[in-house]
Amino acid sequence: MVHRCGTGGAHVVVNCVGGNTTRTLCNRLRQRTCSLRSRPDEIPGPTSHVSNRMKRKFLLVTANVGSLFEKSCRIHDGWLNKLIEEVRKVSADFVAIHMQEVGGKNYEECSSQVPPLVQKMAADMDKLGYSTGRAYLDLEFEVPDKYNALGSLFFVVDAVLPRIEQYDFEEKKYMRMEKGFEMVLKDLAACSKLRKAKFPKHFWPAIKWGRKGYIQCRFRHNETPVDFVNVHLFHDESNIALIHENPSLYSDNRKRALNYVLEEAKRVSDNNLKQHPLFIFGDLNFRLDSPSFLNRITVDADQRHDSLDPHGSLGGNASSLLTVEAAAKQLQNGPCGDQQGEQLRRTVSAIEFRRSPNGSRTDLPSSCVLRIEKNRFDYFNHKKLLHEWRTYLEDDKEAKSFPSLRELRIQFPPTYPWSENPDESEALMKTRAPAWCDRVLMNTAAFEMVCADEHAVYDSIGKNVCMGDHKPVILSFTSDV
Question: pLDDT tens across 206-221, in order?
């Protein structure tokens, strides 16, 4: 079934069918590009195949919108205005927007807000010359085995539409894009213009099976195929588990999931002889290396753990505190099934880092530098964490687990966890350690495309506006395709 509805000048079709190496490579590419441009006598004539190539500007956006869709709708306008402002500023030929947690955290109540907001976005994009677009939105929460709450949107400026084709994964061929805006809301798994999956349950049987997975779409620009993969990886379930049990507990599962995505993308490649550009961008949930980060921000502090306190007071009871090293030793001494060790795991409700005067063991409420609970990360100076983010950027190591993927240098503050209160848009929440969760990664072929443009931009947007708990991240670049 196809529904058409107006969005200003455009029409909407609602379709209801079933490190260092990096810098060296960038420099080499730029030198090579400059060398070619400085020798016009060697540029092929108008009859050559290369003459069909043209410069095209791309804008890639990833945004976790879990905070966007709530009963009050209070940040809808600010969020959308900032996005459209960025699109207008970049003036790209092709815009790809990846959203995660579409429908919000209370998706059963708030998913109905998604189509109207996307239609408004399409109308605003149409005013900027993007009268052609596609939106694939997974809102089918009533199908839990397939639901991953992802949304992938693509907009094409009118001038380049004749040179862009979309891949059909069933027909295994590229199709011309018809002018207009189409929005697919039902049976995404049956839509031939994308590949969609939820991560298998066996990836992490110990936790609740959440809305995590990926959507892959492919477009051909002239003769250059480009893959765009929207990914939402596993988050950190507990702050305490990272310290008290296994620092790599969650990152190992993210690695398993992203490697699965890479293998699937490789399996359905339409050209086995040559790797074409692949961009993976979404909420990858990458977190800081816990040991190095905590050592950095708690210098000269003692580590202690607190037994379960029914009153939940910050100070806790001094007599119940003991060093984390001692607690860990107790856990290691007994077998995995030891009842005492299991009891200790269950009763540890908080870990504190305290600086006591003159090296004493005196416990004063004012001496607490950091208190960590399952869903709380309470640092004594959160503003310092925000303003001095460059000092712990080197603790962002998780992307290095994927040697086949590249990323431009990060030069923007952590993208998570920002306040969801519009009145505190420039403050971090005290729920998790700051992290660069929202990323744009790419394979070598895509990296070459990006690095050929010395003016490529990799940044977060909405730094002074409430965009929810995640700041969207953009990558813009110009490439000959």
Answer: 666 678 999 999 999 9
Encoded amino acid at 381, one letter = N
| Domains of the chain and any CATH numbers | 2-30+53-285+399-480 (3.60.10.10), 292-384 (no CATH)
Convert 361-396 to b/e letters by CB count within 10 Å (16 or more is b): eebeeebbbbbbbeebbbbbeeeebeeebeebeebb
Tens-place pLDDT, residues 290-346: 999 999 999 988 888 776 544 444 444 433 444 444 444 444 444 444 444 444 445
Q: What is the DSSP letter of 186?
A: S
At residue 124, the pLDDT reads 98
Closest C-alpha among 28, 37, 73, 82 to residue 55: 37
The two tokens of residue 373 are 């609970």
Residue 31, beta-bridge partner list:
none
Tokens in use for 360?
Answer: 């004493």
d(Cα 397, Cα 108) in Å, to the nearest integer? 36
- Integer Cα distance of 225 and 219 in angstroms: 6
- The helix-helix angle for 324-333 and 339-347 (nearest 10°) equals 150
What's the pLDDT score for residue 305?
Answer: 75
